[in-house]
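Quick one, probably user error.
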């Protein structure tokens, strides 16, 4: 059984349209924040990865499904887990819930790249710290 990262977001006025509904692009920001917090939880940051490994983690693609809206001052919970991994990239599934309702589901393809934007092997240190969060599917 794989583990999950959890992150809580509160919807602020700046996140909403004039009707108090979260603007769709802001969900991408919420997902990014949750991934950043997931990195922090295993002892890394985007800056540390850049400085220590001369690498960046970039989003190659994102498939997102909006199921229900979130509104001003809602508390949202973001669950993130690694669905599959290769030598240079991984797919992270992220689910945003409001109470018991799933409001957004996303699958994000993340790639480790060097400063020239060429894919590079995921550092062993990071791979081993992420391992408990992998689903059963590991690709080569």
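Nope, works fine. Designed sequence:
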């Amino acid at each position: 059984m794989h583990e999950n990262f959890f992150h809580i977001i509160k919807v602020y006025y700046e996140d909403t349209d004039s009707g108090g509904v979260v603007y769709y692009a802001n969900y991408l920001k919420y997902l990014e924040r949750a991934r950043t917090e997931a990195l922090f939880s295993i002892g890394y940051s985007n800056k540390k990865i850049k400085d220590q490994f001369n690498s960046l983690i970039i989003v190659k693609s994102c498939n997102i499904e909006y199921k229900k809206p979130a509104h001003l001052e809602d508390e949202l919970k973001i669950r993130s887990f690694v669905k599959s991994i290769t030598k240079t990239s991984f797919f992270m599934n992220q689910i945003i819930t409001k109470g018991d309702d799933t409001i957004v589901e996303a699958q994000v393809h993340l790639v480790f790249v060097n400063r020239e934007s060429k894919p590079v092997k995921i550092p062993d240190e990071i791979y081993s710290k992420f391992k408990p969060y992998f689903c059963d599917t590991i690709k080569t």
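Residues 5-133 form a domain with the Thiol Ester Dehydrase; Chain A fold (CATH 3.10.129.10).
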